[in-house]
Amino acid sequence: NALSTHMKSQVFRDGKIYQQEYEKGKPLYPVKVVGTTDKRGTRQQFWPDGTIFTTTTYKWDIVASRMRELAYLNAGIRITLTDMRPDPETGKTRQEVFHAKDGLKEFVRYVDRHRTHLFDDVIYLKTEKQGVPIEVAVMYNTDYSENIHSYVNNINTIEGGTHLTGFRAALTRVLKNYADNDAAISKQIEKAKIEVAGEDFREGLTAVISIKVAEPQFEGQTKTKLGNSEVAGAVQQAVGEALSDYLEEHPSEAKKICEKVILAATARIAARKARESVQRKSVMSGGGLPGKLADCSNKDPKDCEIFLVEGDSAGGSAKQGRDRYTQAILPLRGKILNVEKVQWHRVFEAESVMNIIQSIGVRFG
């Protein structure tokens, strides 16, 4: 309202249509009855203030993404999004309906739709602890990163907060206890001579966490981090109980998760050793640059650029046509490793990748 040049609010209730209009946040007249109806609900029309917003033209994809998100977070609700602006190509208006019968279960599958799953089950809970309604959906995939979406009162807390802290604590504790108490799994860990860390339990994890809090306290510059201390314990208890029950009732899936954790820990340790080895070599060699790098003479990074070319022949041509003062050339041999899809120790073993890292002066840490 305060961010609009004009706003019209209509409420359909008890067979009547109630209306009030505003300009710059100020009401133009008291609430009045403007008609009769058999509908129930609210209609809001607003014209965003161009002196406040840099743009007042809304993009379909952004609005549709938010409507889809709300449909997933509120199972069973039906949201219809209509764009009355004619499509430039077809000349027609656009409409899409968002509806998710299974709510968060469908949400986590949607987020994870392009990945290969360890198993098809969604680990799901919906409960209330210490007066906090909690809903969580979890899946595991074969990737190497975690992907967690957390919400408070349907607001995306992109910086996390106490609900995310409670979730991670419960996940680590329950999975560690399960691995310690399972003879076969604990034997595998002992044989591999590894120490499992919290991050290993979250590798390949995709989760959606949604809670409701009566008086949320948001922190951070953008107010997207939950600060309510009591929430951490409630979420930790709820997730701990539900996950423990799931692992006991689904031993096959539990085994797959634990085997994934062991692989993650093994790869993490191997990557650390490879990184330390590279750093030692760099120190021993005086931090030298790759032999095939044709460096530039300017030392100001803001003015310099590096060209990565395929093979020595391309490198030779590029070296002849470059500006030696600001342009560096690095020939690469063969197909470069796709670092997004491999474990970290493979990255440090790839010569082409290490040459790039040394050339641009990246530090590990």
TrEMBL record:
Its EC number is 5.6.2.2. GO terms for biological process: DNA topological change. This is DNA topoisomerase (ATP-hydrolyzing). Keywords: ATP-binding, DNA-binding, Isomerase, Nucleotide-binding, Topoisomerase. The keyword Cytoplasm does not apply. Residues 304-365 form the Toprim domain. One of its GO terms (molecular function) is DNA binding. Belongs to the type II topoisomerase GyrB family. It holds the Pfam family DNA_gyraseB. It catalyses: ATP-dependent breakage, passage and rejoining of double-stranded DNA. SMART domains: TOP2c (SM00433). It comes from Segatella albensis.
